């Protein structure tokens, strides 16, 4: 088994249009490094200075990883990771 990573539309250029990809690792950091090996450039869109970028939300099995252990959150085979870019703005 592997870890399923759901990719938002804005990052699908890195995954050749795939809505979901699989990866491996024991932490989110390792998972993102594995993803970057197969989909070059994706990690730098998610991580800056070994921390999640401010406007990127990551969920592990529907739990916000910012309330877990951030980039060091443990992951395991069969887990599901969802990446969601934060949306801001709009009209008054």
Automatic annotation (TrEMBL):
Show the Gene3D superfamilies listed in the entry.
Answer: 3.10.20.30
| Coiled-coil portions | none
Q: CDD domains from the entry?
A: Ubl_CysO_like
Q: This protein is called what?
A: Molybdopterin synthase sulfur carrier subunit
Q: Which organism is it from?
A: Streptomyces alkaliphilus
